[in-house]
Specification:
75% of the residues lie in helices and 5% in strands. It has helices at 2-18, 29-36, 40-53, 71-95, 98-117, 120-137, 141-158, 167-183, 187-211; strands at residues 26-27, 56-59, 63-66. The chain has a three-stranded antiparallel sheet. The mean pLDDT is 89.
Length: 215
Amino acid sequence: MARVADQLIEELKNEIQSGVLSPGDQLEEAALAERFGVSRTPVREAVRSLVESGLLETRSRKGAFVRVLSIKELIDLFEVCAELEGMACRLASERLTDAHLKNLLEGLEACNRAVEKEDTEAYAAANLQFHTAIHKASENDRLIEQLADLSRTINPYRSMPYGIRGRLEQSLEEHVNIKDAVLAGNGAEADFLMRDHMMLQGQRLPLLLRAYGHE
């Protein structure tokens, strides 16, 4: 039973991280049990664990929901993530291998295809692919681990600005500039560009959240 609950935890974490489950979405025990073909007991255990980890929250008489971060929490997270992403870029510029470069270019090409199709959902996935390639290119296991943990919380919000006219194209251009700096071995420039990229995105989120009635 514990193994089933663990599998559900990982599946739900992935769905939250990828945006399949959005902030504010309700998770009903019966629906989850039916979808995954399990009893309600492991579902209940998985939900309890995700509430304890901060990914879900419970509301009186309404059950569990994907946790909606406050604007302050979100800005704090983006500030931390921007610094760590910048560090990953700086290290990647010093440690880039042919395999890392291949992954980086594949992520960038996926971003480009999504922009051409004006597909925000595909761009969200490609954006994660690009950033993950940079994380791995840093070759710092502790940094990669910390960024992965942050990503589970922050990724559902990263795609919110993509609905702003021209944002996909601008994000792609920022990715290209970051890639160029990493390939040139210019760690300081890559660091700066990535921190700017992350905070520009983060600064747009409070406006979007307020539009949805979040404080």
